[in-house]
Every structure is written in structure tokens, then in C-alpha cells.
Amino acid sequence: MKDSVQQLYNGLLTCKKAVFFGGAGVSTESGIPDFRSESGIYRTVQEYGVPPEEILSHTFFVKHPDIFYQYYRNYMLHPSAVPNAAHRGLAFLERQGVLTAVITQNIDGLHQRAGSRKVLELHGSIHRNYCMDCHQSFGLDIILRGDPLPRCTRCGGLIKPDVVLYEEALDETVLSQSISQIQEADLMIVGGTSLNVYPAAGLLRYFHGDVGLVLINRDETPLDGRADLVIHHKIGEVFQRLLDFYPSSQSTTSE
């Protein structure tokens, strides 16, 4: 892996504008399981009788909000999780002026907790919630409070997490900003994603940078053949090695 990380470091030195596109694998090293994994799907079917994709759909939320919230609290919320080396490394690269944006499919907010400022959340965030009737905004606390159905403190309406459920469209503003960032980048780093979840995975077609496309994922992806550099390792380990090339990073990323 050392030679591959050296190549990644060289690309970061060469590029003018890098962007990062990440998925569930970025957060699994923080203890947040991927609900799409074989074990996650099996566990959900055993417990609820349906796969997670059905529970996390707009139709299911409307018809069975009580079951939705039971699953959502049990498996989608991990308030004690902390950023790992990948989150911290990306925040460091942004502070260095190398990375211009993090585009993420994750909803956990760990990139912001690590210090990243330009984070484009394609699938929303567990930290934003709103009343479906009066549109009052709420943080995560009202969901964690444990009421079977979280209700608006102003009007009593049902509260919905500001996350993109199956059958719902991505936010057009976030999508447009993500495409612009990718089009303007000359280096794109893709990590912790199988690139099988659309339409998010389709964003890579907008990248035409001349420094290169880097894919970091433990397993193979459908776009490995297109990449200029492929690193099949855990992304946290890769970024920990990468940060070794930056002596100034040690005091700010080891906490």
C-alpha cells in the first residue's frame, strides 16, 4: 500500500483542485454499520420481515411511521460515533487548500465533526429534522428522546428526518453544487463506496480532470478499470498513511 499512497500524495501535490466523493465505507471504521451489507439486510428481514430498502422508503414512512422510527433509531442513529482518520484527513486537506469539497452519501455528520466545512450531503443528515405540517426545524435530540412518533412542539405534526428516502429525489441544489465541484476538479478521490447506489454513483461521469481519478475501497468496484489509481484497503488506514507525508498534520489529526 505504501507505493499507492505515495502516488496519491504526489497527485495531491500536483493538482489545483481536488474533490472527495464518499460512501458508507468512510463511516464503518467509526463503528457505523452499512445497512446495505449482507448481514444488515439479513438482520432487518429477520427482525422486521422486510428488507431495509423497504423500511427506508417514502411509502413505508407514510404508512408505518412507528415501525420506521423503531428501525431508524435502532440502526441508523449512532450519536456516540466519532470521526476516524479518513474524516480527519479530509478536513486537514481542506485546511491546506488542496480539497475544495466533500461529497458524501452518508447522513451521520461526521465530516463536519472532523472539521470539514464544504460538505455536500447527497442523502441529507440525521441532524436536520422538520415538521411535515408547519416546517419547524429540529435537531437530533427530539428524535433521540424516544417518543414512538416524534411530534412538533409547535403544532403537533409528525416530524420527518431530513434524509432522502427511497422513492424520493435528491436535493436539486446539492446535486447541482456537487456536479459543479466535480466538473471543476482535476483530481477526484472516491472512497468507501461500492459505486452501486444511483443516482449518486452516476456523478462520476462528470469528472474529466487530467490529474486523475483515485478509487479507495476495500472491495472491487464497477469503475476500477476507469481509475488511474486503485487502492483496495480500508480508507481510514489509507488516510492515516497519507497523513504521514504531512508532518504538520500530526498535531491536529491525532486527537
TrEMBL record:
<dbReference type="GO" id="GO:0008270">
    <property type="term" value="F:zinc ion binding"/>
</dbReference>
<dbReference type="GO" id="GO:0017136">
    <property type="term" value="F:histone deacetylase activity, NAD-dependent"/>
</dbReference>
<feature type="binding site">
    <location>
        <position position="107"/>
    </location>
    <ligand>
        <name>NAD(+)</name>
    </ligand>
</feature>
<protein>
    <recommendedName>
        <fullName>NAD-dependent protein deacetylase</fullName>
        <ecNumber>2.3.1.286</ecNumber>
    </recommendedName>
</protein>
<feature type="active site" description="Proton acceptor">
    <location>
        <position position="123"/>
    </location>
</feature>
<feature type="binding site">
    <location>
        <position position="235"/>
    </location>
    <ligand>
        <name>NAD(+)</name>
    </ligand>
</feature>
<feature type="binding site">
    <location>
        <position position="152"/>
    </location>
    <ligand>
        <name>Zn(2+)</name>
    </ligand>
</feature>
<feature type="binding site">
    <location>
        <position position="36"/>
    </location>
    <ligand>
        <name>NAD(+)</name>
    </ligand>
</feature>
<feature type="binding site">
    <location>
        <position position="107"/>
    </location>
    <ligand>
        <name>nicotinamide</name>
    </ligand>
</feature>
<keyword id="KW-0963">Cytoplasm</keyword>
<comment type="similarity">
    <text>Belongs to the sirtuin family. Class U subfamily.</text>
</comment>
<feature type="binding site">
    <location>
        <position position="155"/>
    </location>
    <ligand>
        <name>Zn(2+)</name>
    </ligand>
</feature>
<feature type="binding site">
    <location>
        <position position="108"/>
    </location>
    <ligand>
        <name>NAD(+)</name>
    </ligand>
</feature>
<feature type="binding site">
    <location>
        <position position="24"/>
    </location>
    <ligand>
        <name>NAD(+)</name>
    </ligand>
</feature>
<keyword id="KW-0808">Transferase</keyword>
<dbReference type="InterPro" id="IPR029035">
    <property type="entry name" value="DHS-like_NAD/FAD-binding_dom"/>
</dbReference>
<feature type="binding site">
    <location>
        <position position="194"/>
    </location>
    <ligand>
        <name>NAD(+)</name>
    </ligand>
</feature>
<feature type="binding site">
    <location>
        <position position="134"/>
    </location>
    <ligand>
        <name>Zn(2+)</name>
    </ligand>
</feature>
<feature type="binding site">
    <location>
        <position position="35"/>
    </location>
    <ligand>
        <name>NAD(+)</name>
    </ligand>
</feature>
<feature type="binding site">
    <location>
        <position position="123"/>
    </location>
    <ligand>
        <name>NAD(+)</name>
    </ligand>
</feature>
<feature type="binding site">
    <location>
        <position position="108"/>
    </location>
    <ligand>
        <name>nicotinamide</name>
    </ligand>
</feature>
<comment type="function">
    <text>NAD-dependent protein deacetylase which modulates the activities of several enzymes which are inactive in their acetylated form.</text>
</comment>
<dbReference type="Pfam" id="PF02146">
    <property type="entry name" value="SIR2"/>
</dbReference>
<keyword id="KW-0862">Zinc</keyword>
<dbReference type="InterPro" id="IPR028628">
    <property type="entry name" value="Sirtuin_class_U"/>
</dbReference>
<keyword id="KW-0520">NAD</keyword>
<feature type="binding site">
    <location>
        <position position="217"/>
    </location>
    <ligand>
        <name>NAD(+)</name>
    </ligand>
</feature>
<keyword id="KW-0479">Metal-binding</keyword>
<dbReference type="InterPro" id="IPR026591">
    <property type="entry name" value="Sirtuin_cat_small_dom_sf"/>
</dbReference>
<dbReference type="InterPro" id="IPR003000">
    <property type="entry name" value="Sirtuin"/>
</dbReference>
<feature type="domain" description="Deacetylase sirtuin-type">
    <location>
        <begin position="1"/>
        <end position="255"/>
    </location>
</feature>
<dbReference type="InterPro" id="IPR050134">
    <property type="entry name" value="NAD-dep_sirtuin_deacylases"/>
</dbReference>
<feature type="binding site">
    <location>
        <position position="193"/>
    </location>
    <ligand>
        <name>NAD(+)</name>
    </ligand>
</feature>
<dbReference type="GO" id="GO:0005737">
    <property type="term" value="C:cytoplasm"/>
</dbReference>
<feature type="binding site">
    <location>
        <position position="35"/>
    </location>
    <ligand>
        <name>nicotinamide</name>
    </ligand>
</feature>
<dbReference type="InterPro" id="IPR026590">
    <property type="entry name" value="Ssirtuin_cat_dom"/>
</dbReference>
<feature type="binding site">
    <location>
        <position position="28"/>
    </location>
    <ligand>
        <name>NAD(+)</name>
    </ligand>
</feature>
<feature type="binding site">
    <location>
        <position position="131"/>
    </location>
    <ligand>
        <name>Zn(2+)</name>
    </ligand>
</feature>
<dbReference type="GO" id="GO:0070403">
    <property type="term" value="F:NAD+ binding"/>
</dbReference>
<feature type="binding site">
    <location>
        <position position="105"/>
    </location>
    <ligand>
        <name>NAD(+)</name>
    </ligand>
</feature>
